[in-house]
Amino acid sequence: MSNPKWETEDRVKCQSHFRDLNKKISIFAGCYSTATREKHNGWSDDDYIPQTLELYCVKEEGREVAKKKSRATSSKSSTSRKPKLAIDEEFSNLSSAHENLEKSMETTVSAMLEYASSQNEVARAKKFVMWMILKNK
Question: What is the rounded CA–CA span in Å between residue 133 and residue 128?
Fold first, then answer.
């Protein structure tokens, strides 16, 4: 006579294994769909497989890295916070980098406005300014 506990454990193991396989198959199917979205003349379905495998490996690698990172952050205690001095230093570094970026953006924009002689070029330069502002937000 079989032990009901073993049957339950086997069932749970099978369900877990099925969930893992189903997740991997879904990821692979999504990668295949992404790879075939970009059609190439003369390519058969077999030609898309290497591209699909590359996408799948990248996704799996990224997933593993994210898991490791979340495990590392969740295992840290609340006492491992940065000291106020380090935070202030990081903030000053970021603010100076932001100021340098704004200065370089201003010089680029002023150079473009100088270059722009016709009304069309001025409008293009203004659009570029707006693009740079939106890009840096």
Answer: 9
**Burial (0-12, 13-18, 19+ Cβ within 10 Å), 113:** middle
Residue 60 in tokens? 């799996």
Distance CA 45, CA 56 (A): 16
In angstroms, what CA-CA distances link 94 with 87, 88, 128? 10, 10, 24
Other CB atoms closer than 10 Å to residue 56's CB: what's the count?
Answer: 19
User: Structure pTM?
Assistant: 0.41
- Dump pLDDT digits (tens) for 79-132: 557 788 888 888 888 888 888 888 887 887 777 666 665 556 777 777 888 887
Query: Which two three-digit tokens encode residue 106?
Result: 């201003």
DSSP state of 137: -
Neighbours of 41 (CB within 10 A): 4
From residue 47, how far is each of 28, 29, 32, 52, 54 by CA, in Å?
15, 15, 11, 9, 13
